[in-house]
């Protein structure tokens, strides 16, 4: 294991993405290919049985595979060679039919599709877990007032539950997108040397359909050796999820700053320093930020690799092999960490309440301005309040006091009313309706069975 | 006009993406906002009428807008200021209600959404035109045999129509994706200062719904000031389209190489050189390649900008303003050029036929190998043919002749049969079935009304 | 003018990067080419004089250039055509020698080199201005104590001048790099159709040397049509500068947050909101962040474009034309804005001092730990302080008080000493020596003449 | 070992980049830190001896390190903890002084610097080997004529040695850049918690200087915790090298296309297909293309990570840990493969000569045009030749014959002269002078000792 894997990766996902798992899927492809071909009468029934029987990891010699990959430019050729030897050892005749009519890219891409589909399911699971924690936070903190901030400056009040509801909304969008992705793009790759399935005369379509069924994949109209949309689609889906998760982690670290202190990561034994005794660094959020920062570059690589030459490309195809699993690994771990982060999040409502007041009322100036605007016009009200806020700051007074002593204000707004304008609970607009809408959407969403 | 715009851009699209068009949409937003607010009883009916009447480009002073954008960090503030002045000139009371309850990002994002939706429609039109030409090429060349190439080497025969059918399949996928994008993400942005619609107490939802209707947009559950999925989604859709178009252009230039010469760009007066009289450079394909090469970096920028701070971000939001339209412009022009490229493409079937033979039969070695494999096993057949191809190359003989004089072959395959194995028309596998499937999909696809 | 240009661009730089300036440099190339060729006896003296005389912008028809660029794939061919016509009008014989022996890429690349060199000079000027303001801030605030922050958490004390000194150090590194870039890579491009200067028999080298001299450029050993290091080098230099500027802007916005309030942008009339009267957003820093966020993607594009085909590429070369100037424009404007930002920066030393104390002494825990470590060992001291900081937080006491009542501490550190450990001025380590070293480096650096 | 490592990686480099090597360098840092501190009188002499003695890999528990990295956000904290325990076991007093005054980032960054420096040396070695093979090819093929190609179309003749000379020129530039990088940026990282070296009062500078000496690193004016230029510089250097290597590999695969066949990869047993017996795919070039395609995205990530917060960042710093070694690994392996590729390259001069003639003389049209231009003017000559080339193509005649029968030509150019214009050896311009200049530069370049 790599030392940083517990920080940057998610173990369950790493198993799905392992080399062994890829080789297993490649062997599964070869087994199902033989069976589909036997069913179509292309190869003898018995050959298929023998081939399928040999399709286990223990027929492979890993060192020889590595050698072969370097000599051949992909791992399929030596895998097929080794499998053929293994079959030959038990049934020389059957060995004649291993990998019949397929090309290296057929088995490599299909195995990767299965691996990515399984990985996406793991990620969907973590995303769903994240949704659950966001739902809980929303329910609990729907009335927890705090400063809304724009441009990193206090704007107007909001609630913490409204913030988490918006996160929930965005994450649900991404969950649906991944589910849809798996539904649409769990595609068999099968075209033979140049996508024509030439080795089967016109019978290739039947073999393809049966093979897809056997592997529980969709059978596309045509092989996609040089049409990389299926893999590029996964890359961009993960790119969007990554941006969504990073936003959450980013807000958490900003709200955990020493001066803000409205949130903290859970887990008191985490985030120490090698030299500063008081430190409690936001380690989990940091891992999310780190992973997600690396994603856009990898997405760009997947897009750059799309224009592959003629029937099958060189270099560009190869560049996907490590890039896509890396993307999946980073974003999946970010999802896992995000679920943990929000599950154990420390929320400090009192501090949120206090921070609302650190500007001595400036955060309520929009509220007052809108109240006045109905009387004296929006522009005039805005100007009046702008002057008052500057005055309050310069004289180190509360904005409420400054306004209470200004007849241009008091003419239109009496004392009680003014006081109410400085109550954040009175200026929450549609937050509660929106929260209800998002929670109801969460409640009604189908419990996605792995797709 | 910029001198390179006719090379790199598509005029119709540039008009949609123009600054004037953005400002017009911003004014439309303000007009419809006022009307929706009047309908909800938030502002006086008459004020809305006056405001809407003033929402025309001629109320704007461009220099002052530019000044304002620099001072305020966005163009909305001075636009609202100028609009307010214009309204005040005709009805001072109405001026009080301009931009009521909205924030700068509401008007900027919504105007951009409309602009991008209209732009996507233009692109969809070009993509559909491209599909039409690909369909025509497919129908015309479904039997036009040529060399299939993998790793930039001859592989086995295919047909040109099979190649264009696969392009058609990929481009139709992208067309559907863009249509779906417009359907899903033509979203109103409306949340006020911090997304809470606080200025409306709890009435904001009604205003939002009415405003969305007025602008013919969808009304999301919540504003998406800091959830950039809607714009990032467009970026990645265009990234995928770009890769798809680039693949087409890439194949065209490869097949247009002097030594290959199976294709050429149409338009004989194009692509000359400043010094070489014989030159006819593939200018249109080059413009596509150039535009598309620039796309992945821009997509990465859009993804990097996603994690925006708190309720509304700084810097990251701003970085979208020029990046997304640039992406749209480049990919849209690439689509336009691709439609032109394929429409005027010169196809040389005779040369395709000739090139099939330049390896003196090597391209048919898989066909022979599969024929033999049934007799002597796949591995043995592969090995036998491998030796024969090397022998043919070294002795500068045709592979057919080498094989015809090898008793290990002739034992299993007689002369006529051998001859047939060197006929590309006999080794096209599923190409025709696939072409039919794709053409039928093309025929049946709904004539997408602009969505 | 584009409305956002005053926000995102720097006018002086935009003039250097304008289309007119590029065309002027292209005409200058043609003039100097003719003169160099006349000097070498390749073309008649008089022809050169006539050609040079015609090399002015007014011989060009912009619409026809745009048409030509679209038809030919670059602007040089029609520019040469138009120039040839203009020369022919005054001296038909001289017209025979326009652009003699050169290829389109020679004139386009060379003109771009000159433009980029001039642009880099402008940027160097802004960077130098930024260095000056950073120097002033360093001198003024070298003793201004504030919280040092790591992982967005308070760490130990530092001074604001120490922070700006480090910024100065980084920016000086970048300045030197740009100067060196201009010295190394202000290269003539001149190779003819395929880089061989074939049109000159073996005399091309002399023409090249003379042409380089005339244009005040370096003459490389060989043309670099398909070796894009010179332009890619500029791109990465700007990428590094961008990261450096973005770090400065990022720190400014973080220190300007409402809760931190240690810095603010100057210019009180800037950064308002369309709806919130109290708002004063950090507009200049935002423009820097926005511009710099867009840079890595553009750098990636320039690197992706490097592997150009054979003697001169297609698509990849073209993709540089808009990408590199865009990079230069964005980073140059960021440098300009950064100089302005730091020049007008509001610094609040009192608030810095206050923020040091908001953790009630926790920020001094490392200082105490090191004092104790000499007595009881580092690990034990670290552990003891860790417990004490948790205790202080839970009991809402000052760390100093907690420690003063702990005999395990007082055994080793008496009251006065303990007090001194909570004085930030006593824990500044090497800050002043470092500041001196950086200031002295600033003082001694050569006043770079434009290179 | 990963199965694709022999294809995509370079074993020697992987050892340098291994986890063990990083941990060893971290321990070396701690040992030298203790010794430098003892020399400065900061810690007891004996403590330093004991600490240094314990700084070996066998004191580390890898599982616990992995656990620690996940809990602390970096591996240094648990490494220091484990080292402290190990020292305590032999000398409890000495254990008090482990990691004295340093912060996690000091040891992590410094260890990475050493690792990257050593890795860069390995890469420089491969680059030098590549230069040697390019030099040999240049010497051997300086007169080997072939078609120069622009826009993937035949342009004018060149020689293969001229092509490799230009590659050599570019690669030498990159070699010098890497050497210079190691000279400039082999920097100690040492600043303590916030870069102030506060734990040493004012004595930190002396410790730093001594520590740098001990580790054979440069001692910068100030620590660079949040100034990531040193690592970003390495990233961009590798980005430029990557583009340079990719161009070489790209040209090789283009010239190896079935229809071109002027080059082939050496190693006849490589590059087979799982289904096509005749296949010999360019595997080594493909690995280079694949690795290099992945580089720009990683460079963008390193640039995006530059703006780190305050004294030390979160997320962005962490994102470098895997990204930079990955970059180094990919580009280093590409350099290794490129040296192999060019060393074993099969060059077919006869085919190059034949391909020059496949356009039946069109490739010589510029030569004829320049000869005529002296008589009838360049534009007229260009036009005349343009017509002639079209005529030759349409009538399927040789251009030479078409011209020989055109009195407008024969009036100015007699038969012998015309013949000479169709001899590629007569139209090589400055190629030989340029080759000499580049070879002489190669010969004179200092045999860089590892820097």
User: What is the helical fraction of chain A, as a range of percent?
Assistant: 55-70%
Low-confidence parts of chain A lasting 5 or more residues at pLDDT below 50? none
Query: In whole angstroms, how far apart are the ends of chain A?
Result: 31 Å
User: Pair with the most extensive interface?
Assistant: A-B, 107 and 107 residues
How would you describe the oligomerization state of the chains in this entry?
Answer: homotetramer
Give a quick summary of the entry.
Four copies of one chain form a homotetramer. Chain A has 451 residues and is mostly helical.
Structure in words:
The structure is a homotetramer. Chain A has 21 helices and 4 strands. The model of chain A has no long low-confidence stretch (mean pLDDT about 95). Chain A starts with a helix and ends in a 7-residue tail after the last helix. Chain A has a two-stranded antiparallel sheet. The first copy, chain A, has helices at about 5-10, 10-15, 20-40, 45-55, 60-70, 75-90, 90-95, 105-140, 160-185, 205-215, 230-255, 285-295, 295-305, 315-345, 350-355, 365-375, 380-395, 400-405, 405-410, 415-420, 430-445; strands spanning about 145-150, 155-160, 265, 345. By secondary structure, chain A is mainly α. In chain A, α3 packs across α8 (about 105-140). The first copy, chain A, is elongated and about 100 Å long. At the A-B interface, α6, α7, β1, β2 and α9 of A face α6, α7, β1, β2 and α9 of B.
Write the layout of secondary structure elements.
4 copies of one chain form a homotetramer.
Chain A: H1 5-8, H2 11-16, H3 19-39, H4 45-54, H5 62-72, H6 76-90, H7 92-95, H8 104-141, E1 145-150, E2 153-159, H9 160-185, H10 204-215, H11 229-255, E3 263-264, H12 283-293, H13 295-304, H14 316-343, E4 346-347, H15 349-356, H16 365-376, H17 378-395, H18 399-404, H19 407-410, H20 415-421, H21 431-444
Antiparallel strand pairs in A: 1-2, 3-4
């Amino acid at each position: 294991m790599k030392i940083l894997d517990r920080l940057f990766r998610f173990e369950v996902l790493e198993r799905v993405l392992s080399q062994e798992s890829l080789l297993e899927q490649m062997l599964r492809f070869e087994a199902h290919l033989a069976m589909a071909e036997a069913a179509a009468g292309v190869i003898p029934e018995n050959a298929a049985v023998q081939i399928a029987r040999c399709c286990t990891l223990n027929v492979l010699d890993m060192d020889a595979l590595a050698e072969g990959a370097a000599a051949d430019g992909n791992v399929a050729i030596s895998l097929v060679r080794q499998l053929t030897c293994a079959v030959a050892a038990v049934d020389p005749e059957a060995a004649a039919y291993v990998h019949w009519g397929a090309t290296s890219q057929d088995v490599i891409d299909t195995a990767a599709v299965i691996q990515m589909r399984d990985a996406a399911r793991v990620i969907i699971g973590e995303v769903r877990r994240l949704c659950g924690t966001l739902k809980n936070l929303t329910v609990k903190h729907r009335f927890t007032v705090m400063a809304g901030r724009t441009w990193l400056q206090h704007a107007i009040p909001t609630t913490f539950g409204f913030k988490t509801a918006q996160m929930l909304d965005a994450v649900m969008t991404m969950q649906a997108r991944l589910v849809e992705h798996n539904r649409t793009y769990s595609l068999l790759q099968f075209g033979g040397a140049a996508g024509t399935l030439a080795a089967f005369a016109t019978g290739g379509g039947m073999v393809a359909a049966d093979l897809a069924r056997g592997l529980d994949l969709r059978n596309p109209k045509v092989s996609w050796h040089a049409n990389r949309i299926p893999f590029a689609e996964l890359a961009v889906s993960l790119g969007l999820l990554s941006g969504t998760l990073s936003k959450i982690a980013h807000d958490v670290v900003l709200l955990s700053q020493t001066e803000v202190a409205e949130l903290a990561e859970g887990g008191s034994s985490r985030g120490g320093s090698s030299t500063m005794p008081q430190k409690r660094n936001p380690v989990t959020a940091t891992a999310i930020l780190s992973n997600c920062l690396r994603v856009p570059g990898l997405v760009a690589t997947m897009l750059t690799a799309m224009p592959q030459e003629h029937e099958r490309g060189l270099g560009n195809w190869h560049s996907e092999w490590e890039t896509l699993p890396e993307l999946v690994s980073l974003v999946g771990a970010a999802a896992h960490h995000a679920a943990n982060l929000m599950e154990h999040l420390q929320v400090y409502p009192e501090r949120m309440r206090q921070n609302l007041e650190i500007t001595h009322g400036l955060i309520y100036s929009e509220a007052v301005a809108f109240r006045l605007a109905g009387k004296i016009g929006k522009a005039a009200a805005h100007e009046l309040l702008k002057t008052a806020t500057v005055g309050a700051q310069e004289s180190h007074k509360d904005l409420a006091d400054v306004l209470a002593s200004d007849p241009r204000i008091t003419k239109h707004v009496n004392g009680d009313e003014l006081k109410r304008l400085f109550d954040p609970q009175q200026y929450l607009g549609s937050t509660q309706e929106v929260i209800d809408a998002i929670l109801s959407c969460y409640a009604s969403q189908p419990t996605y069975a792995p797709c």
